[in-house]
Amino acid sequence: MTDLARAGRNLIVRCPDPLNAETRPEALIASFLTPQADFYIRSHGPTPHLPDDHPIRIDGLVDRPASFTAAELKANFPVRTVAATMQCAGNRRAHLQHVAKTSGDPWDIGAIGNAEWTGVALADVLAASVVREGAFFVGMTGADEVDIDGDVTRYGASIPLAKARDRNVLIAWAMNGEPLTPEHGAPLRLVVPGYAGVRSPKWLTRIDVRDRPSDAPIQAKDYKLFPAQVAKDEADWDAGLTIEDMPVNAAICSPIDGARISAGHCTIHGYAIASGRPISRVEVSTNDGIDWQQADIVARPDTPWSWSQWSITVDISAGRHKLVVRAVDGAGQMQPERPEAVWNFAGYLSTAWHRLTLTAD
Fold it and tell me: How far apart are the two ends of the chain, measured CA to CA in Å?
C-alpha cells in the first residue's frame, strides 16, 4: 500500500509527497484517544519501511554503548504506557497565512492527536548506558532523509537531558495498543509528551548523548521561533528560540467553518491543550468576542499530558455568526486575541483565538 493510500477518509492530505495529512475536525472529537488510522501524519521525506528487528544504537557520552531491537527493549526494561497529545509546531498555520504568507504546509486545526503510547522509558535505557558527566542533551537520528534548504541528511533532533530523564518520555513501538504503522514510525519512535512533534523522531536508528544540541538541520536551522520583523533570509539561526514546550491552544471542531445549521440549540465541541498543565477554563463567544460563555471541560486527571475536550450548548438565532473560543491554562496563561500577535515567517505556534463563521436558518 502506498503512503497516500494510507490516508483514510478521516484525513485531509496537505501534501502528497512527502505525505502530510491532518485529521478532519469531526474525527478529533469523536473519542478521547485518536485512532492510529485517523492520526495526523507529518513526514519530512519518504517513509522508510524498516524490518521489525531493526536496531537502534545508544552511544555518545555513555560508558556502555549498546544496540536494541524492539523485542530486546521489551525483554530488558519495564514496559510503560503513557497517554499524551502530539501536535505539530505548525498546527493552525493556515490561520497565520491569513495575515501574511508563511512557509510550510497550510495546516488547519488537525495536525494534532491524542494517543496511548507503549514502549520503555528513555530514562531507563539511558541509566543502563551510564551517562557521563558533561552530558546535557540527547540526540536522536531517524532513518528518513530530509531536505532543509538543499541540505539533504538524515532526520536529527535533540532534547535536553533533563527532559529525556522524565519517565514519560518513551521509546515506543505501539499506539492505542496497536503496533506502529510505517507512517507513524515503525518499528520504534520517540514520544516526548508536551513537546512539539518535531522532537519525537520516527524510525529511530540512533540515540546519542551529547554535550550540545544536535547539529542536524532540523534542529539547527528549522523549528525555531523568530519575531514578526525577521525574514527567513535574515534569520540568525543561533538566536532563534528552539521550539520545545507547546503553548496553550484551543480550537472549535464542530460545527465546522462555513457550516449551515438550523436556528435554535447548537452544541459546540472542541479541544484545548496546554503541554502538561491543566486547562482551567474554556470560553466561547457566538458574537465575535463581545460576550462569552464558559464551556464544560472533559479532562482525565490521570493523563496530564493529554488534551481536554470541551462542549457547550448555546442558542443561535437566524443569521450569520462568528464563533470564537479561547482557553486559559492552570498557570493563568491565555491565548492571544489576534493572529497578527504571533505571526512569524515559518508559521509556528499559531495560538490566537480560534474563529469560524456559521449561518443559521
Answer: 44
pLDDT tens string 4-35: 555 668 999 999 999 999 999 999 999 999 99
**How confident is the prediction for the chain on average, in pLDDT?**
96
Q: Which domain holds residue 347?
A: 249-360
269 domain residue, yes or no: yes
> What pLDDT does residue 3 have?
57
pLDDT digits (tens, 9 = 90+) for 190-200: 999 999 999 99
Which one has a higher pLDDT value, 258 or 149?
258
Split into its structural domains, the chain has a count of: 1
Q: In Å, what is the CA distance from 329 to each residue of 46, 112, 223, 302, 338?
A: 37, 18, 24, 17, 18
3-state secondary structure the chain: CCCHHHCCCCEEEEEECCEEEEECHHHHCCCCCCCHHHCCECCCCCCCCCCCCCCEEEEECECCCEEECHHHHHHHCCEEEEEEEEECCCCCHHHHHCCCCCCCCCCCCCCEEEEEEEEEEHHHHHHHHCECCCCCEEEEEEEEEEEECCEEEEEEEEEEHHHHCCCCCEEEEEECCEECCHHHCCCCEEECCCECHHHCCCCEEEEEEECCCCCCHHHHCCCEECCCCCCHHHCCCCCCEECCECCCEEEEEECCCCCEECCEEEEEEEEEECCCCCEEEEEEECECCCCCEECEEECCCCCCCCCEEEEEEEEECCEEEEEEEEEEECCCCECCCCHHHCCCCCCCCCCCCEEEEEEEC
Residue 188 lies in a domain: no
Record the pTM.
Answer: 0.95
| Residue 197 maps to a domain | no
User: Which CATH number belongs to the domain containing residue 311 in this structure?
Assistant: 2.60.40.650
Q: Strand order of the sheet with strand 293-294?
A: 260-261, 354-360, 319-329, 279-285, 293-294
Residue 2 C-alpha cell reads as 502506498
Residue 279 inside a domain? The answer is yes
Q: What is the pLDDT at residue 301? A: 86
